[in-house]
Amino acid sequence: MSKSISALRNALEPNPLERHFDFFSCPPEGHVLSQDEFKKDGINKIYKITEQRQTSIGESVREVQERDEREKNLMFFNIEESQAEEALDRITEDSKKIESILQKIQVEGCDFEKPVRVGRKGEAPRPLKIRFKESDSCNKILKSTKKLKGTDIYISRDMTPLERKQWKALLEERDKKRQEAKEQGLEEKEALWIIRRGKVINVARDGPRQPQGQAKDM
Question: Radius of gyration of the chain from Cα atoms?
Answer without folding.
Answer: 21
